[in-house]
Specification:
There is one protein chain. The protein is mostly beta strands. Helices cover about 10% and strands about 40% of the residues. A 6-stranded mixed β-sheet has the order 1-2-3-6-4-5. The radius of gyration is 13 Å and the shape is globular.
Length: about 120
Amino acid sequence: MEKRKIKIGGRELEVLVAETIRDKQRGVSILNTLEGTGMLFEFKVPMRYGFWMKGVKFPIDIIWLRKGKVVGITEDIPPGSGFSLLGLKAYYPPVPIDAALELASGAAAAIGLKEGDGLE
């Protein structure tokens, strides 16, 4: 996965970019923490993509993005480790998105993110 510097809510972060289908399927399940970083998912076609927490060991926030703007925030999503595939909940954005940013739980509030904030 590529690393990229982004700016969101006035704060600069170095994030991992999930580029391949495999990267997007595995997501943050390959990490032990997201403290001080994040994972960015970009999509060519805007849709209401579902995210699940399969194998994720820690809670996260998902920032839903469309055309570089925050269109929704889902906070404090619980980890999915130990659940069967049938027991996993999928999380969806409120509108079609072209990107999503996963951060450590509480990071969205700590940064002060809100709908309309831009991603650079």
